[in-house]
Amino acid sequence: MPETTDAKAAEAGIAEANRAVRQRFPFGDEHDLEDVRRGFVGTARESVIRNAEGRAVWDLGAYGFLEGECPETANPSLWRQSRLCSEHGLFEVTEGIYQVRGFDLSNMTIVEGERGILVVDPLLCAGTAAAALALYRAHRGERPVTGVLYTHSHVDHFGGVRGVVTDEDVAGGVPVLAPQGFLAHAASENVYAGTAMERRAAYMYGAALPKGERGQIGAGLGQTTSTDAVGLIPPTVDIARTGQEETVDGIRMVFQLTPGTEAPAEMNIHFPDRAALCMAENATHNLHNLLTLRGAEVRDPRVWARCLSEAADLFADSSDVAFASHHWPVWGREKVVEFLAAQRDLYAYLHDQTLRMLNQGLTALEIAERMELPPALERAWHTHGYYGSVSHNTKAIYQRYLGWFDGNPAHLWEHPPVESAKRYVEFMGGADEVLRRARGSFADGDYRWVAQVVGHVVFADPNNAEARELQADALEQLGYGSENGTWRNFFLMGAYELRNGPVGTPTVTASPDMLAALTLDQLFDSLAIRVDGPRSWDADITVRWNFTAGKPVTMRLRNGVLVHGTGTALSVAEADVEISLAEADLRAVLLGTVSPADLVGRPGVEIIGEAGKLTELLGHLDCPDPDFAIITP
Predict the structure, then answer these.
(1) What is the mean pLDDT of residues 433-445?
(2) Which of 173, 197, 318, 554 has its CA at a distance of 20 to 30 angstroms from the CA of residue 62?
């Protein structure tokens, strides 16, 4: 198993803290391990999963080291969770419902119908989804896919759809079900801020980290993300209301819409004929994120808690098993009710107590330090912060209600990081003095402070090798002690990049399928957010598009802003160039696959005015940087 070659051992304080975790929680309780292995049918013969081009995108054997004893370099609670998540194969949930687990960050659920199968959440990429389907068929026969269902709008639940169905299958009548608003949210999240999210996701999931005792051991929700391009086939059936019923291939389903919970478009599904409840990603075996560390809109824990109560009220009395798109099922009606109630109380408690302290004048950082879960909740393994955390979730709640500003005017107009860093280092007596004192703090075990204060030295002088190594050492120790999988990955990725340089973005979500799913309005918006404003202050360019599928669209670059619309306010401006073309050609230009020069003489395209003006306008666009620095300036 490859290890991080320059990773160091755990310091004595971290090793002792990790040993103390063993005394605090019931590690002898193996009920979860029994549930993880319940219904096991088999797994793949080949451990490495490859995409259609033959490139490895997933390794089932990468986490075999987790079968060993937890080392000093890992929190035993996270080690336990990662071991459970690394169990892979095909599992029977109940009669006619199977899950393939451990083949990607998420699970793929397969429900058997009269003629074929309904695939629920086809993983992150086509390679892993195809391997999961092949595993099912190896044990259950060559049943055709007669339906696909996306539980919500996050990419690890739809990105592998082309591994289970084709466009021709869907055109031929295979339905694709999704909650209302799915397509808009799936496309916008992965395109508007997609570059920044993907780069930060490299830290969050640690996909580029060596896997092993001193490296990546999991992400809490699952092990990590597969590393291939994602796909998307748009839904053909919208689920628009709670209580809506649909039947696909004889499979009856009753839906509960849960917008504003784990995703802006999400739904739970009850299978009444199987007494089975799919909780999507709303109730999993960990505390989830209210604000994911890769970045997203803040989720609403109050709504989340109420949706969990509603799910229990609607379905618990008729559910013998509850399962989700991550982790393992819960069997037995009483246990299902208990599980949903504890998950509900978890989010409600964090919400209510954050608001209580917020209204006493505490800041986000102060609330995060004070917040403790009730003992009854903390004793339940499935409430632990393996993915979300009490600390960053309380900060998210504060942000949702009050925003970034804590009310202290001293924090209203601070210097940006590099300028602050230079001043801090100068005030503290220079880099050598800061590092001398920081080494003392490191020896005392105050790794949080070392990472924070030495970060100023790194930002003031990113070439200071001693500072980079000391900060890396501190981040590494913080990672070793973290119960939260994404915290560990963030800390260890920071240490890795300080020592080895940036790794970039292993998983790219802005694929051709994702871009094709954008509406024209979203496509125009995606250009607007790329305009280099200062370079465009003096530009004034108007382009009018005429196409057969809709009203003419006018876009104008002025004052460093690119606006578009079909109304008269923009249309009164005289166009520098007017272009008539098919919508497909317009999309190709906006996506950059066809250049303005290619339009000249193109069949079906008519250009009136200065054709070069479109080239000039597009020349004001900037390109996003998928490799931007995080741990250094």
Answers:
(1) 98
(2) 197
